[in-house]
Amino acid sequence: MPPNPDTRTRATLIGGIALVVWATLAVLTVYAGKTPPFLIVAISFTIAAAIAVIKWVVRGEDVRGHLRIPPMAWALGVGGLFGYHALIFFALQNAPAVEANLVNYLWPLLIVFFSSFLPGHRLRWFHSVGALMGLAGVVVLVIGKMDGALAFETTHALGFAAAFGAAFVWAAYSVLSRLFAQIPSDAVGAFCAVGAALAFACHLVFEPSVWPQGAEWIAVALLGLGPAGGAFFVWDIGVKRGDIQVLGAASYLVPLMSTLLLIAAGSGAFTPEVAAACALIIGGAALAGQDMLRRRARA
């Protein structure tokens, strides 16, 4: 039975909360100081897992019951959440950050493309054009930051490959999650618990032991409650029950909102490139989401 249009729209909007929250990632990471990346992931994932456990305990739910998840769902959840972060951190450490992040932002386009293979879905021209407009907006935004100079040097090929791998993993995780729609989004807490253990292990092996100091703990805690933890729950609802193609195209709003937040915080200026990116990304998201907008108008 196809999902109720109102339910689908509501789930899409809930998934959109993750996009807004992810826009705070850059600002909070700056305030996290010199805390190593894998340690940030480990602490953030631990907080996300704690959110789920507290909810289960308060509601008197069977904690062990929430851990009875099919092996394929375990592999997808842990591989998607931890695998993405491991790859993107490797990419950022082995390639220029701006260019690597641009390659990483192929994931919204890949979500739109991959979703066309889902049962009951097909790729419409406005989904494709909207996603491409969003990608063009991100390119304009990045080129504006770099004063027009991008450098995809072959010496950083491994880092760029990892960035593309991160984009592929996150897109695949998001789209394939729809095939496990019967599994409650609470399972994200279990996936984060395993991901936290893996991130702690990577921290011990690959990073110096530098823990957050003072106010840095607040930033790291907010990362766990928001963009690097709590946001995964609402994203899971969106990709499982919402309009995944709209969410894919709208995901290009994340780097735009992040840039606008940094400008508001005094770390940048509103340039013509930012204005052009606004037009392209917002226009692309509106174009890709026209079906949903029409459903809301009819309602």
Please, what is the oligomeric state?
A: single chain
The backbone outline, from C-alpha atoms, is globular
The residue ranges in which pLDDT falls below 50 over 5 or more consecutive positions are: none
Strand content: under 5%
Give the H and E element order. Answer: HHHHHHHHHHHHHHHH
**Cα distance spanning the termini:** 20 Å
User: Helical stretch count?
Assistant: 16
Mean pLDDT reading: 86
Structural class: mainly alpha
| Biggest sheet character | none
Radius of gyration: 19 Å
Total domain count: 1
Structural write-up:
With 299 residues, the protein is mainly α. Helix content is 73%, strand content 0%. It has 16 helices and no strands. The longest helix has 24 residues.
Which helices and strands, and how do they pair?
Layout: H1 5-22, H2 25-31, H3 37-58, H4 63-66, H5 71-94, H6 97-104, H7 107-115, H8 125-145, H9 157-176, H10 187-206, H11 216-225, H12 231-241, H13 244-250, H14 253-264, H15 272-288, H16 290-298
Helix pairs in contact: 1-12, 1-13, 2-11, 3-10, 3-11, 5-6, 5-9, 5-10, 6-9, 7-8, 7-9, 7-13, 8-13, 8-15, 13-15, 14-15
